[in-house]
């Protein structure tokens, strides 16, 4: 079908080429031969009067005109898919699909491991790709590189739908041979000890607890910066250092390793783990089903008592303080991005 002089089938090829920035990778995505994809690129070049992709060094890069086309082309295709394409009925037992989830190793450990194992039994044809958190998770969601984003509610986008999953708080984790872990963890002791913390991506984005503790009048002495939450446990064993860790993960560590937990000597707001998807995928039955399974697993865990509960209704002051913390965290995160 043509619109004006443009074969509309080429829009799908154009989106793949602009996304992958490679003829061979675009061909794999389109399930076409490389020669057919090269031919499509040639016709697109003729239509737009622009090279679109050019070789620079050992890779292909987009021209300025191609950069301008990325969002309009994706928006057109998403609109077509969301309003015209009739989705077949979704049956988990027979569904064949790959779903990409961006999540931290913490979220993977405390939720996805159990949830994905349960989903395998009812939806064996659904495959999952878990991508690590990077500097711009919202951008990855909006560009369609990931289907679901699993993160704290402070870090999600206000432009897309989301669902709350569970809450978790923080404890101090240390080696059982560390003299400082033998008694109650006091504020003075906490800030006198060396700390291990996790930071992520090329920009070394801080975790929420790391960022929040920096707001205290005293500053902790960070002696080791780790690339993942899971690595924190091994880095405090056989040392006098401590780490501030999500309670659920700390409980897993303490069950299997020579580690002990202590309550933090000051209040750190609990995290609220949330799953988010692009607004154009609201009617995607497969994604809806996966979100429901994640929520069900989170609910099961909450009922099991491993996640913190907050019985008291938040006061107006609590909500104002939370709004203030969210604003500051978002501002800090935006400054940290390249």
Which terms summarize this structure?
single chain; 338 residues; alpha/beta; Arc Repressor Mutant, subunit A; D-Maltodextrin-Binding Protein, domain 2; 6-stranded mixed β-sheet; 5-stranded mixed β-sheet; 12 helices; 15 strands
In short:
The chain is an alpha/beta fold. It has three domains: 2-83, Winged helix-like DNA-binding domain superfamily/Winged helix DNA-binding domain (Arc Repressor Mutant, subunit A, Orthogonal Bundle), CATH 1.10.10; 97-167 and 271-336, D-Maltodextrin-Binding Protein, domain 2 (3-Layer(aba) Sandwich); 170-263, Periplasmic binding protein-like II (D-Maltodextrin-Binding Protein, domain 2), CATH 3.40.190.10.
Architecture overview:
- The protein is of the alpha/beta class.
- The chain folds into 3 domains: 2-83, Winged helix-like DNA-binding domain superfamily/Winged helix DNA-binding domain (Arc Repressor Mutant, subunit A, Orthogonal Bundle), CATH 1.10.10.10; 97-167 and 271-336, Periplasmic binding protein-like II (D-Maltodextrin-Binding Protein, domain 2, 3-Layer(aba) Sandwich), CATH 3.40.190.10; 170-263, Periplasmic binding protein-like II (D-Maltodextrin-Binding Protein, domain 2), CATH 3.40.190.10.
- The protein contains 12 helices and 15 strands.
- The protein has helices at 9-20, 23-30, 34-48, 64-83, 105-122, 137-142, 187-192, 208-214, 232-236, 247-256, 285-304, 316-336; strands spanning 2-3, 6-7, 53-56, 59-62, 97-103, 126-131, 148-152, 162-168, 170-175, 194-200, 205-206, 221-226, 242-246, 259-263, 271-277.
- The strands form 4 sheets. Strands 9, 10, 11, 12, 13 and 14 form a 6-stranded mixed beta sheet that branches.
- A hairpin with a 2-residue loop joins strand 1 (2-3) and strand 2.
- Helix 2 crosses helix 3.
- The longest helix has 21 residues, at 316-336.
